[in-house]
Amino acid sequence: MGLFSRRRKADQEPAEVATAPAAEEDAPERPERGPWDVAHEPELGQRLDLGALRVPARPGLKVRMELEKRTRQIVAVSLSVSGSALQVQAFAAPRSGGLWEDLRPEIAASVEKQGGTADEVDGPFGREILARLPVTTQDGRMGHRPARFLGVDGSRWFLRGVLSGRAAIDPDAAKELEELFADVVVVRGQEARPPRDVLTLQMPGKAAAAETEAAEAPAETTSFDPLSRGPEITEIR
Fold it and tell me: N or C: less crowded end of the chain, CB within 10 Å?
């Protein structure tokens, strides 16, 4: 089940016309906290270059690149540490922003349609969704897996994060992954893209700590659905 449709609706904005890179004075205002636009953090530093995303390289961090079955393109990255995981995806967004405002009710409705629950709450990045996703355990019983959906609107881009495992229910366990999410850099590019179009990724290059565990993690999975199993805590009915 996909919780984020990439198909354009009739009332959505059309793809924007590609323009020349903005002058420095036209760069978006720097927020107090990331995730960052590449205009704010142009240097790679201690991050892995994944194309549309630059993610922090930290000791003990495991990185898994995720593929879409149909196109075989890398569309998401999963960062795992200490029994929790953070899935990150970037999308094109309208210049006017506000995509997260539209997406929250869509995600909540999708979760509830599957038999789960979803509540909007305040979090460190603004409004987020705390969900209990339905799962079937190995012994056939029904349970629920907690997950937190984060969203940040940037400059013509939108970044979504999904926390699973202990980080979805334990604020202390979530801090490390929240800091990782806040230190992600989005490289939107100047090409014209329709809103909600996924920004594709690439395998890490040789720069910036590529010799860490992150570079040695499995290269692919078959899905970028946040309902796919990862580090988790399942509540049994």
Answer: C
Q: Using the structure block, give the residue that is written with the tokens 């906290």.
A: 33
Give helix then strand counts, H and E, for the chain. 3, 12
Higher pLDDT, 139 or 217: 139
Whether the CB-CB separation of 55 and 63 falls below 8 Å is answered with yes
Q: What is the pLDDT of residue 100?
A: 96
Residue percentage of the chain with pLDDT more than 70: 74
Q: 216: part of which helix (H) or strand (E)?
A: helix 213-216
Residue 4 near residue 103, CB atoms below 8 Å: yes
CA distance 218 to 82: 17
Q: In angstroms, rounded to a whole number, what is the distance separating the alpha carbons of residues 145 and 111?
A: 11
Mean pLDDT over each residue of the chain, to the nearest integer: 80
In three-state secondary structure terms, 46 is coil
* Cα 99 from chain centroid (whole Å): 14
For residue 133, the cross-strand partners are 145
Identify the three-state secondary structure at position 180.
Answer: helix
Of residues 100, 65, 99, the one with CA closest to residue 79: 65
